[in-house]
Write a structure and sequence with these properties.
By secondary structure, the chain is mainly α. It is built from 13 helices and five strands. Strand 2 and strand 3 form a beta hairpin. This is Sulfotransferase.
């Protein structure tokens, strides 16, 4: 699978790093709920480490027409989407599912990435993004002060370009994938330029990929029970894979506030969750 990693020039010149560090010191910052500080740069909030990568990407990264970039918010189906994309694009190479690389490798190992570009492809309700110190995090989130946030502006940017250039940007929603995964997988394959043939469909190739990449299957594999990717235990990439878990964490008042802001920010643009 073509990715951005091969196009990124990793030149850690001390002069350039120093330039970026000095610029970061001039930016607005706020205490993060799980980090020391996040910094506001060009309208969005980032960890210092990620921001250094953003600046380097802006200066050095050159995309190829054949590159595929998956953009997701953390805990919004990233691992699932990576596994599906890999399996779809390499299905001609790995026809024997019992020997498929996804059985022995975490999807993040198979689809390399530049960290900042592993953002958000598609939408998921902000309530679904995972556990954190609730009251503080909820207040900051609603103010737009969150990693890669403001959430609504981030999502809206991708939504708008997906309408303007649908041949280049595919916008996917987690709930829609859960509701009709076969339809969404076929939609993803068409967008990636490798649609399933009638013969493949009749032979059950689509269903086999869905089963291979299912949350239950990936989570229960040995590599994802005990392995590591970078410094992260693979098991942490698999939370619940469900829609609606926010109800177990947010109060009705918190959920109402998020829904109200979501409606104000997104509904007028035709983006509805």
């Amino acid at each position: 699978m073509d990715t951005t990693s091969n196009n990124f020039v990793n030149d850690d010149s001390q002069q350039e790093i120093q330039e970026f560090q000095e610029l970061i010191e001039t930016l607005p910052k706020e205490k993060g709920w799980i980090t020391d500080y996040i910094y506001k740069y060009q309208g969005f909030w980032h960890l210092r480490k990620i921001l250094l990568e953003v600046m380097a990407c802006q200066r050095r990264f050159q995309a190829h027409d054949t590159d595929v970039i998956l953009v997701t918010q953390p805990k919004s189906g990233t691992t699932w989407l990576k596994s599906l994309a890999f399996a779809i694009m390499h299905r001609g190479r790995y026809t024997e599912l019992s020997q498929h690389p996804l059985r022995t490798h975490n999807p993040h190992d198979l689809v390399p990435f530049i960290e900042i570009l592993d953002g958000f492809k598609g939408g998921r309700r902000p309530e679904e993004l995972g556990p954190f110190p609730l009251e503080v995090a909820h207040d900051m989130f609603c103010r737009g002060v969150s990693i890669y946030g403001p959430f609504w502006e981030h999502i809206l940017g991708y939504w708008k370009v997906s309408l303007e250039r649908p041949e280049k940007v595919l916008f996917m929603k987690f709930e829609e994938m859960k509701e009709d995964v076969k339809y969404q997988v076929k939609r993803l394959a068409r967008h990636l330029g490798c649609p399933f043939s009638n013969e493949e469909e009749s032979e059950g190739v689509v269903e086999n990929i869905i089963k291979l990449c299912s949350f239950k299957n990936l989570k229960n594999l040995e590599v994802n029970q005990s392995g590591k990717t970078w410094i992260i235990d693979n098991k942490h990439f698999f939370r619940k894979g469900e829609v609606g878990d926010w109800m177990n964490h947010l109060t009705p008042q918190m959920a109402e506030q998020v829904d109200r802001i979501t409606e104000e920010k997104l509904h007028s643009h035709g983006l509805i969750f």
